[in-house]
Q: What sequence folds into this?
């Protein structure tokens, strides 16, 4: 008596699972950065084109494969052709790498969340130095938010060679993050199906609240105007935007953002779709999920830019206040006579009246510019943990906003983790060998335990540098290759006509020519060009470098990777990409040996 | 004669209190920045209060001769508001060493601030660093408490789910074993009714059935 495959209680759970997986931290911390870098509002044009041409078709393809084969990634590709089981294994390996380092972000989220229940927020003030006459030097050189991130949270070492010890506080947060993930995946779709209601919907609630708060902040409009018309005046910005549209890098970055934002190639989408009823309309769901994912990116960047605007305006006004104080003290002017509005004319007056004294003071007078404050484009953990926390500390009732924000980050992160772990667990639970010996709960527990143990590497003092290595190299090239092989395999090995008739029998829906053209032609070509671009970029850059934190200067410096780090990078990329040819080779050898065995008998 | 003496005294005073003089300190007030609309104007009465506060701080140091208000000299008052002051000894010929004045002011800094409704940032004594308030030292940091609470909740939830899963699978096992038993009995019955000669598990022979057969076959 075979056990029935678990299924989602209703299609809505499936859609929410896909949304909570696809809508992750990348929508919040990568898209606004790309938007700012490649022309603001005009970046939306290549982004939306790539969504329609690349995102939707590939998402539909993965969901259709999972729903048709009713198995995880390894089983699905093995059914299509036994030589392709390597593709499934490669997906599982990449998902394994991803879940190892991704949960560390959740650990950081927990850390900041727990520290938000203090007054004042710990990253808003610098700690005192040893004799209590001033502030800590590192904090003075950098800023209090950077100090809290680099020193108190990460306790970062000056270079990747100095590993340092495991930070017990961060290790505890990592253990908690993994326990939380285990709690959500413990019972398979039964528990995941309920959790995704929260992980999919709650971030939107927080984003809406933040939109309301962000738009009413002082100086938010500066940020929004900057987002749509970067580089100042409208004539200049229009030229800049048109230039960016002609730049191939803009299109490549739009394509890669769509590709990685949807989480294609990890096997998570195949895993989720395999728990669907075969009659489920996955075309509709694919379109809905990809549209919601992109809309969330745009929505999140509106919120981010209004926060940028607030932070830039606040810093600009503090800079002006410092200049005013400096001039007032140097020339003993009446307190309050210098304001932001009369600063320029007063400077000229002082320069003409007391030229010698003015020239003494002049080097210390900073040129405060709103433009330069807005121009600091930040992405990744820097945006999420430094820039945002800096903006939050200046808001009223900052504890509330801080709690809301880090809670949202946690929801986004855990939602993505559910998909990552599903990609690893579904093939394991599908396999008869493993699931007959161990119950589902034990398999999930073992996977979480192994990931947690390896993840301790990222809680060491040099952990953030290893995190950056994994973040930049573990998934990028391998995924492109995996999805390329998937598309070609489905269209040419399994046969597009055969799949089309399968889908018609399954869902009752005919496959329109649009999808056929994209699957068979356009998308593979696009992926090949992305792959070629990435390879050429790696080769041209020569030695790979990373940003290390220099405590004495209070800023990041560029350093070269040591050889063993380069070896690890090579191993990461090779271990997942090599699965594909090795899998095919392995099956070929096994079949050859079987034929050799059976031949004498016949 | 008298006014000659007076001139001499003020001249010596002027020498004692000068910007940058030995043992002189510059003070800077930002009254408008601190109090906004409630700012008071700085006049000679406020200066008198200041001199009184400095004398008070000097008197607080034990084992010293008592300082009078007249021993505190102010000069170079600007619009900012900023000025210089020195503390002289009772003979009014020498100034008290800077180190002593510094420690006296540091000890009574809070009282001086409160007298003017200002704080360390708005009433600045240049060259006298203020002791910054130490952070509130909790015995157990707040974040560990919240971490502990959430950790316990998660552990409890996991144990509940795992235990209920084990209990459910045990119940299923006993149910399926009952089902298997009753299925076995059904199979048993079927084989006996078919009259399987090989089946010697000693079931009953249905007499009524057998007798009907016997009745019919001889025909």
A:
């Amino acid at each position: 008596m075979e056990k029935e495959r678990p299924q989602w209680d209703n299609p809505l759970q499936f859609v929410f699972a896909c949304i909570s997986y696809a809508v992750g931290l990348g929508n919040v911390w990568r898209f606004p950065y790309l938007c700012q870098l490649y022309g603001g509002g005009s970046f939306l044009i290549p982004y939306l084109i790539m969504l329609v041409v690349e995102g939707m078709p590939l998402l539909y393809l993965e969901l259709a494969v999972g729903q048709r084969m009713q198995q995880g990634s390894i089983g699905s590709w093995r059914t299509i052709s036994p030589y392709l089981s390597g593709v499934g294994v490669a997906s599982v390996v990449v998902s394994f790498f991803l879940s190892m380092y991704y949960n560390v972000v959740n650990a950081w989220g927990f850390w900041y969340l727990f520290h938000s229940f203090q007054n004042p927020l710990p990253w808003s003030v610098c700690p005192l130095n040893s004799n209590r006459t001033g502030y800590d030097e590192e904090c003075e050189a950098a800023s209090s938010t950077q100090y809290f991130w680099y020193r108190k949270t990460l306790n970062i070492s000056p270079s990747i060679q100095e590993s340092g010890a495991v930070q017990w506080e961060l290790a505890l947060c990592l253990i908690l993050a993994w326990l939380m993930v285990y709690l959500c995946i413990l019972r398979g779709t039964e528990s995941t199906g309920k959790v995704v209601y929260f992980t999919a919907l709650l971030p939107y609630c927080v984003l809406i609240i933040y939109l309301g708060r962000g738009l009413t902040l002082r100086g938010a409009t500066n940020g929004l105007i900057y987002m749509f018309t970067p580089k100042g005046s409208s004539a200049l910005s229009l030229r800049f935007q048109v230039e960016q549209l002609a730049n191939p890098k803009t299109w490549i970055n739009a394509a890669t953002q769509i590709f990685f934002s949807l989480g294609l190639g990890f096997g998570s989408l195949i895993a989720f779709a395999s728990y669907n009823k075969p009659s489920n309309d996955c075309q509709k769901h694919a379109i809905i999920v990809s549209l919601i994912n992109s809309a969330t990116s745009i929505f999140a960047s509106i919120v981010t830019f209004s926060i940028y605007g607030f932070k830039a305006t606040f810093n600009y006004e503090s800079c002006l206040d410092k200049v005013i104080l400096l001039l007032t003290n140097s020339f003993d002017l009446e307190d309050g006579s210098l304001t932001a509005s009369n600063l320029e004319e007063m400077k000229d007056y002082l320069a003409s009246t007391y030229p010698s004294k003015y020239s003494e003071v002049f080097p210390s007078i900073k040129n405060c510019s709103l433009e330069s404050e807005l121009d600091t484009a930040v992405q990744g953990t820097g945006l999420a943990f430094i820039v945002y926390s800096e903006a939050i500390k200046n808001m009223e009732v900052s504890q509330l906003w801080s709690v809301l924000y880090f809670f949202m980050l946690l929801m986004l992160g855990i939602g993505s983790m559910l998909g990552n772990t599903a990609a690893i667990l579904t093939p394991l639970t599908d396999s008869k060998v493993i699931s007959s010996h161990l119950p589902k709960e034990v398999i999930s527990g073992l996977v979480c335990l192994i990931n947690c143990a390896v993840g301790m590497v990222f809680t060491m003092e040099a952990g953030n540098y290893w995190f950056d290595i994994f973040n930049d190299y573990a998934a990028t090239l391998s995924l492109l290759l995996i999805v390329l092989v998937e598309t070609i395999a489905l269209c040419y090995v399994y046969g597009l006509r055969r799949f089309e008739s399968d889908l018609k029998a399954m869902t009752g829906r005919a496959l329109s020519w649009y999808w056929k053209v994209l699957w068979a032609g356009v998308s593979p070509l696009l992926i090949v060009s992305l792959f070629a671009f990435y390879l050429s970029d790696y080769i041209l850059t020569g030695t790979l470098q990373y940003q290390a934190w220099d405590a004495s200067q209070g800023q990041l410096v560029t350093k070269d990777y040591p050889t063993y780090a380069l070896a690890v990078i090579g191993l990461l990329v090779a271990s997942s990409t090599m699965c594909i040819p090795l899998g095919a080779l392995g099956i070929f050898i096994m079949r050859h040996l079987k034929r050799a065995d059976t031949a004498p008998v016949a | 004669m008298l006014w000659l003496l007076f001139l001499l005294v003020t001249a010596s005073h002027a020498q004692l209190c000068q910007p940058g003089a030995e043992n002189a300190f510059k003070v800077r007030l930002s009254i408008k920045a601190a109090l906004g609309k409630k700012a008071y104007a700085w006049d000679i009465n406020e200066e008198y209060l200041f001199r009184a506060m400095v004398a008070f701080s000097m008197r607080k140091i034990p084992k010293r001769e008592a300082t009078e208000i007249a021993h505190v000299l102010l000069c170079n008052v600007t619009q900012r508001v900023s000025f210089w002051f020195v503390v002289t000894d009772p003979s009014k010929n020498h100034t008290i060493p800077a180190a002593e004045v510094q420690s006296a002011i540091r000890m009574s800094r809070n009282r001086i601030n409160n007298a003017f409704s200002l704080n360390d940032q708005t009433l600045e004594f240049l060259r006298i660093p203020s002791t910054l308030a130490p952070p509130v030292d909790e015995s157990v940091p707040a974040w560990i408490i919240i971490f502990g609470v959430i950790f316990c909740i998660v552990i409890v939830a996991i144990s509940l789910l795992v235990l209920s899963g084990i209990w459910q699978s045990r119940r299923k096992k006993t149910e399926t074993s009952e089902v298997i038993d009753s299925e076995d009995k059904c199979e048993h019955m079927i084989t006996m009714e078919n009259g399987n000669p090989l089946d010697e598990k000693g079931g009953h022979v249905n007499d009524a059935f057998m007798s009907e057969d016997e009745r019919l076959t001889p025909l």
Summary: The longest helix of chain B spans residues 142-193. Chain B touches chain A at residues 28-33, 78-82, 129, 131-132, 134-135, 142-144, 146-147, 150-151, 154-155, 157-158, 161-162, 165, 169 (CB under 8 Å).
